Amino acid sequence: MNHDSYDPKTIRDVLGSVKTIAVVGASANPARPSFGVMRFLIDKGYKVIPVNPGHAGGEILGQTVHARLADIPEPVDMVDVFRAADQLSGVIDEALALSPRPKTIWGQLSVRDDKAAEKAEAEGVTVIMDRCPAIEYPRLMG
Q: Per residue in 116-129, pLDDT tens?
């Protein structure tokens, strides 16, 4: 897939089909972008599961925080990544180890690693990078 631009239908299909989203790098700090995006996604009706080893066992926006993706006790449809771009490959490896695998891995603004994306796409996982669902949702979903 060309990650320089995305067909709006691809993003619309992702946002319209996923129900459960794991947010890797979730923060309890209301000033952090991950907190605002989590709140936005919850308000839009998604089930959001925060992932952050420093807050594991606590809560963010009323949701139990898990240390890593493998600790989540239910399948997730999408992994939304709020980590540095050089950490995306490791998150993708974690996501690909899940069973069932998520349908989508979404790298937030500035989170892009084309080689890591190729690995996920070779396994049938859709990858969107350097985009924010809280920006794309109002633009494409109304």
A: 999 999 999 999 99
